[in-house]
Amino acid sequence: MPVLEKAYSGLVTALAMLAGAVLAAITTALVINVVLVSVFTTNIFGMADGIEVGLMAATFLAAPWVLKKNAHVAVDIVTASLTPRIQRPLHVVTMGLGAVMSGVLAWSSFQALLIAFGRGSMIQGILVFPEWLVMIPASVSGVLLAIEFIRQALRSPALDRLQTGL
User: Fold this and answer.
1) Are 61 and 18 in contact (CB under 8 A)?
2) 46: how many CB neighbours lie within 10 A of its CB?
3) Beta-sheet pairing, 128-130 with 122-124
4) pTM, entire model
5) pLDDT of residue 17
6) Which residues contact 120 (CB under 8 A, 6 or more apart)?
7) Cα–Cα distance between 93 and 67 in angstroms, integer?
8) What are phi and psi of 81, to 5 degrees?
9) From 1, 47, 75, 114, which residue has the greatest number of CB atoms within 10 Å?
10) Under a CB-based contact definition with an 8 Å cutoff, are residues 47 and 127 in contact?
11) Average pLDDT of the chain, as a whole number
């Protein structure tokens, strides 16, 4: 089990680092584009398309890591005032709902990926690329989010509060 835990943690961290690299690349490209437009009256071809896909991908790639670190927004004003006897079952139910919704995300995005792949659908913008490529992050993220919600359902809510934040 520790090997599986280590592999899962490594994958989630690697995807978060990839998301950070995508955001850094977008930021760098924006700066370069401003200079190009200001000095040379030209711009980076397909930048808007790249930013659209990059932001979507980075969001999905980083989501499992954010959940794992409890670095997300949590409105716990009600649950914090409940007794531990009530908190635990409520925690399990909410984490279970999160796992189910993440599973639905993974399943539906994977089904859409398969359909787009089967049809050979292309995204036609400034850049032209296969539609199924943009569905990979949502499919992977859905699976990892479901796993993380299940992991958190098995842990104590008090432990989650101790690990909140970055």
Assistant:
1) yes
2) 14
3) antiparallel
4) 0.87
5) 98
6) 130
7) 16
8) -90, -5
9) 47
10) no
11) 92
Question: Rounded distance, CA 105 to CA 115, Å?
Answer: 15
Helix (H) or strand (E) holding 135: none
Contacts of 25 (CB under 8 A, 6+ apart): 54
Determine the Cα–Cα distance for residues 127 and 29; give it in Å rounded to an integer: 16
Tokens found for residue 33: 């584009």
Tokens matching residue 77: 């004003």
Please state, for a pLDDT cut of 70, what percent of the chain lies above it: 93
CB 102 within 8 A of CB 142: yes
CA 65 to chain centre: 8
DSSP output for 82-136: S-HHHHHHHHHHHHHHHHHHHHHHHHHHHHHHHHHHHHT-EEESSSEEEGGGGGH
Say how far apart CA 124 and CA 67 lie, in whole Å: 33
First to last CA, the chain: 25
Residue 149, Cβ neighbours under 10 Å: how many? Answer: 22
Sign of the alpha-carbon dihedral angle for 152, 156, 158, 163: negative
Tens-place pLDDT, residues 38-62: 999 999 999 999 999 999 999 999 9
d(CA 56, CA 92): 29
Question: Which residues on neighbouring strands pair with residue 124, listed in sequence order?
Answer: 128
Amino acid at the residue 146 = A
